[in-house]
Amino acid sequence: MYRLCLIWIGLMSVLSPASAAVRYVAASKLWILETGKTSYALGINELNAVQNVYWGKRLAREEDLSAAHTPRRFAFESDESLANEEYPGWGGMRYAEPCLKVSLDDGTRDVVLKYVSHQVSGEDLEIKLKDIRYDLFVVLHYRVFPHNDIIRKQVSIQNRTGKTVLVESAQSGVWYLPEGDGYRLSYLTGRWAGETQLNREPIQPGKKVLESRRGNTSHQANPWFAIDYQGAADEEHGRVWFGALGWSGNWKMVVEQASNRQVRVVAGYNDFDFGYSLKNGESLDTPPLYGGFTDQGFGESSRILHRFEREQILPDRAAPHVRPVLYNSWEATTFHVDEAGQKQLAEKAAKIGVELFVMDDGWFGQRNDDKAGLGDWSVNPKKFPNGLKSLIDSVNKLGMKFGLWVEPEMVNPNSDLYRAHPDWAIHFNDRPRTESRNQCILNMARDDVKEHIFSVLDKLVSENNIAFLKWDMNRHFTEPGWPEAAVPEQRKLWVKYANNVYEVIDRLRAKHPGMEIESCSGGGGRVDLGILQRVDQVWTSDNTEAFDRLSIQNGFSQAYAPKVMMAWVTDVPNMNGRSTSLQYRFLVSMMGSLGIGANLNHWTDADFTLASRMVGYYKRIRNTVQQGDLHRLFSPLQGELTANQYVSKDGKQAVLFAFLHSQQFRYPAPTIYLRGLDERALYRVESIDGKLEGKLKTVSGSYLMNRGLDFKLGGDFDGAMVILERVADR
Ligand code: DGJ
Fold first, then answer.
1. pLDDT at position 423, please?
2. What does the pLDDT read at residue 20?
3. Angle at CA 61, nearest 5°, toward 58 and 64?
4. CA-closest residue to ligand 1 atom 6
5. What average pLDDT does the segment 14-22 reach?
6. Which of 622, 620, 658 is nearest to 640 (CA)?
7. Which are the contacts of 607, defined by CB distance < 8 A and separation ≥ 6?
8. pLDDT, tens digit, for every residue of 506-548?
9. DSSP state at residue 475
10. Which has the minimum average pLDDT: 52-61, 73-82, 99-108, 462-471?
11. Measured over all CA atoms, what is the biggest interatomic distance in the chain, rounded to whole angstroms?
């Protein structure tokens, strides 16, 4: 067996040419994973464990890397705890956050994983590990995305012990930083109407836990991190290691600085209330965990993720296309939708260039407020006596596609569905089930519930010309019981629920390939790389107030592409009682995927004229905003200015947005230096609002990046936009 293994390894190393994305170097027992600009190396150490060796900028020569070597133990530390194991189980003398914790039915709670075999195929590497005593296997799957500078880790835990194994913690993997202290962590937290706020703080000895225990990704924290060294990185410079988890259920990221000054990030399923029993022959797959490195600062780390999402994650990844301009009825009509009212809004929306008209909540069952109707997905005949067809036909005749709001995972106790199936709601027997927004959660982990939801949505989409679903989820889990399942199976709910949401979406999309989906959860409660594999865009926040949006969007853009960031222009006064000009609101929304959510019945002629103009500009620049490179020039978290610049993929267009928050002491706004242009090229400058200082017509990239631009911005909440078209290469 051992000899066979060696022959296999030898063969694979011969078959791994020096340019391949994954190579095995038999002499040093190292695997080298290479992207265009990064290297990741791991190897088999003296203890036959798989150990991380390097993660950072691409190395010129693999010969420079030494074989994996276990540091020598000292008092109270073991060899294995000092080795950076790629997938440490909780067993032996290990005290840091483990990747795997199990309990066997003979009482054993100890797992020690050793290398068994591996397989390299193209951009994939699979390494099989096995417990030292039991036939408990862990297969580590690595996928390299050479053009995107991203590596994905995913793990399959396989039980062949002949016994039942309870998995108590299953992580997707661990990322190790080069040894030492002085690292700084960037992460995103928030709350409803205040999502994706960027935090930066030094990493100290001990653990920082980012997590969701709420059943979905959550508004409160988002599964993304970035780490830089000595706080030395900025938007353009410095080493940044970053990663994100693709999971829309309970998740956890533990950033730990161990006592040997080793910083590590373990991420995967949240082990809080976790318990996944595996019968003999069963397995559990973890969510994908992505990671990358750049030495060009936070700006480049975000651009790497944005490109990766567009090219490898999103449903249109094979041929990325731009998002349509959308209208959504929610803030205009709330639950009071009806055929005449929606048609009236649709006519007005079409006039300003909207391409997708979305009717939000209120169209079904007895849904007149948030107290009833969820679960009864048939059209309310009083509001829509002709069904949806008449409205959809009118919308289509106006040249727009039609989209519809649904909240499939939920049920109001005041609904026919709940009256028929009270047991379908998540609950513990004989205990109160908490209602939040007057609703309970349908137990999507159950196959009958999953099938019901699929068939309801399938019928809706099959019977109507629906091009887009806004899939909402307006509460978090409480009392996560599943009393109908056997007790050892009940806690699988946490995993099965999210997987079944994925399955329903995947099946719907497969059956209705033209239909697109937006992920919403009371705003941005379900935004992660798992849901983004199956939806085209996300609702960023229920907070549509333009100034607040600047910081929400700034945090969002750290991890997620502007293309998926839905941003509506809505009415004022808005949240915080703040009023900003319509132009300012448009400019803020135009930095993502533009939508309009205002009550168009209240707009003046001047508003319509301005809106048509802004939508026209947006259509000119959206390819650049959605598919191009984002450069964050001024952060809303510092100083009086926010400025973002986007450069198209082909470098032919660039767009600059600048916002002054609140002027003081008559200071002029600071000069803005552009980035990412060609120094020698000439650009035609178009100030769409005349707020650019000077009479610049055509200037060089060198001028724009070194002399920079000044703006006549004053007062409170002022904004400006400049379009640059490359007209000549000098
Ligand atoms: C929460 C969403 O975030 C809103 O945009 C809207 O769709 C409401 N739900 C409808 O109930």
1. 96
2. 86
3. 105
4. 330
5. 66
6. 658
7. 582
8. 999 999 999 999 999 999 999 999 999 999 999 999 999 999 9
9. -
10. 73-82
11. 82
- Amino acid (one-letter) located at 278: L
Residues 378 and 373: their CA atoms lie apart, in Å, by: 10
279-319 confidence digits (pLDDT tens): 999 999 999 999 999 999 999 999 999 999 999 999 999 99
Residue 533 to residues 113, 154, 211, 247, 310: CA-CA distances in angstroms?
31, 15, 21, 10, 10
Tokens 């592409």, located at residue: 561
Q: State the sign of the Cα–Cα–Cα–Cα dihedral 518, 520, 523, 524.
A: negative
Q: Following CA atoms 44, 28, 19, 242 in sequence, which dihedral angle do they give, to the nearest 10 degrees? A: 40
Pocket of ligand 1 (CB under 6 A): 330, 360-361, 405, 472, 474, 520, 522-523, 539, 542
- Which protein residue has the closest C-alpha to ligand 1 atom 9? 522
For the CA of 334, the closest atom of ligand 1 is 10
- Average pLDDT over the chain reads 96
Atom of ligand 1 nearest to the CA of 405: 7
Burial class of 576 by CB neighbour count within 10 A (0 to 12, 13 to 18, 19+): exposed
Closest CA to 454 of 408, 386, 413: 408
Q: Phi first, then psi: what are they for 310, rounded to 5°?
A: -65, -40
pLDDT digits 0-9 by tens, 563-601 = 999 999 999 999 999 999 999 999 999 999 999 999 999
Instruction: Give the active site residues.
Output: 472, 542
Q: Does the global pTM surpass 0.70?
A: yes
pLDDT band at 324 (very low <50, low <70, confident <90, very high): very high
Q: Which atom of ligand 1 is nearest to the CA of 370?
A: 11
Cα–ligand 1 centroid distance for 542 (angstroms): 7
Ligand 1, atom 1, lies closest to the CA of 522
Ligand 1 mean position, distance from CA 361 (Å): 7
Instruction: Taking residues 225-242, report their average pLDDT.
Output: 96
